[in-house]
Design goal:
By secondary structure, the chain is an alpha/beta fold. It contains 12 helices and 18 strands. Helix 5 packs across helix 6.
Length: about 400
């Protein structure tokens, strides 16, 4: 089997260690060795490049390509799957080799990537988001119509659920139909028309049943949680990660620290709504207003969570900001808090892998791990223009972008 040595780069292995000059040897789908003066059958010249593990986006909607409701009404359902193939290639091309899809993608999309029908990052799918009637996932509008950007179909059921018994049945259905992770909305949100991000959703009994059923099937739960009360309810129930966390208060942060709950901040999401509206995308006025209201609060909540020591993993909520801009989240995290650039990179590598339960296989450059590597032009301390600086992407030992020249070692 051919051994490929990535030679002469600056190695960031995803751990707390500082980047150092070195080499990485890959054989087949696995990393064989990391060190200095290593050899192989062929070589990739990494001089002037940083070499780091494949990146994660822990909160993305790969099936969708924007926020325009009128466009969605004029788009055939099957068209989304062709767009998804383009989105998958875009995200993989900027070095993201694993994503946790936060509703939209289904088992068929995951298998299409696994079987090589389309190129893309490996997918952890949630299928749909569980929401109470009138909650963040309820497509009802005041005109009396339902405008559902996530329509139900075989393999991706409706996520509207009320009461413990319905919750138990729905979680079992999602697991039956291929969900790797269960997503629930424990608060209102910015983009939904008839709820408030400051209000908590679902009662403790409903969430307890959800976590019980997910845990029985060895599945983690992620919670869209913006309101402080929704965050606390999710933490009490044992939900693994808080998505967004806009209105974190001190009690919620302390609870997260006690339980080891993760935060996936998605800081570029509200600013993405504002940018899309300014570009002329048809977004309801109430959603644009809510986006403006939450930006400063969101960043302050994240800053306080980081300072307290809450565990953080990178997620973006793309395509609220377009697919391909995902790496902007790294700069937003560093700019909004005391998080250093290297801590931001860890949030997108080793920490993200741990959140997703994949740290035995991914997230660091170590012998035996899957050979996901990214070559980045320039210093890792510079978080600007990252998507344009990606010089090469490998997933499971195969070059997926950039295609640097291979030479005999």
């Amino acid at each position: 089997m051919t051994r490929t040595v990535f030679r002469g780069g600056t190695i960031f292995d995803g751990s707390a260690a500082r980047p150092t000059p070195g080499d990485v040897v890959v054989e087949g789908r696995r990393i064989l060795d990391v060190g200095t003066d290593l050899d192989g059958d062929e070589a990739v010249d990494c001089a002037g490049l940083s070499v780091l593990p494949g990146l994660f986006d822990c909160h993305v909607h790969i099936l969708y390509s924007g926020l325009d409701t009128m466009r969605a009404l004029d788009t055939p359902l099957s068209y989304y799957f062709y767009e998804a193939a383009q989105n998958l290639a875009t995200v993989l091309g900027i070095g993201i080799t694993t994503v946790r899809d936060a509703s939209g993608a289904d088992l068929g999309m995951k298998r299409a990537v696994e079987d090589g029908l389309v190129e893309g990052p490996r997918l952890l799918v949630s299928l749909t988001m569980l929401s109470q009637t009138g909650g963040h996932g309820d497509p009802w509008h005041v005109c009396g119509s339902e405008v559902d950007l996530f329509p139900a179909y075989p393999g991706r059921p409706s996520g509207i659920v009320d009461g413990p018994d319905e919750m138990r049945r729905k979680v079992r259905q999602l697991i039956r139909e291929g969900a790797d992770v269960i997503k629930v909305a424990t608060s209102g949100g910015v983009l939904s028309p008839r709820d408030d991000p400051r209000h908590g959703h679902f009662r403790d009994g409903e969430l307890a049943v959800l976590v019980e059923e997910a845990s029985a099937a060895n599945r983690f739960v992620m919670a869209h949680a913006q309101a402080a009360e929704g965050i606390k309810a999710a933490v009490r129930a044992g939900i693994r990660s808080i998505e967004h966390g806009i209105y974190l208060d001190d009690e919620a942060i302390e609870m997260m620290l006690e339980r080891g709950t993760w935060l996936v901040p998605t800081l570029i999401a509200p600013t993405g709504v504002i940018a899309a509206a300014e570009a002329g995308v048809a977004i309801p006025e109430a959603s644009v207003r809510k986006a403006h209201e939450v930006v400063a609060t969101h960043r302050d909540s994240f800053r306080r969570a980081v300072e307290a020591g809450v565990r953080v993993a990178m997620g973006t909520d793309c395509p609220i900001s377009p697919h391909g801009t995902n790496l902007d989240e790294l700069g937003a995290m560093a700019e909004s808090s005391s998080m250093s650039p290297l801590e931001a990179w860890r949030a997108a590598t080793s920490s993200a892998a741990e959140l997703c339960g994949l740290d035995g296989e991914l997230g660091t450059l170590e012998p035996g791990k899957r050979a996901d590597l990214v070559l980045l032009d320039g210093d890792l301390g510079d978080l600007s223009g990252l998507e344009k600086r990606v010089a090469g992407v490998w997933k499971d030992g195969e070059c997926k972008g950039g295609r640097p020249a291979l030479t005999p070692s």
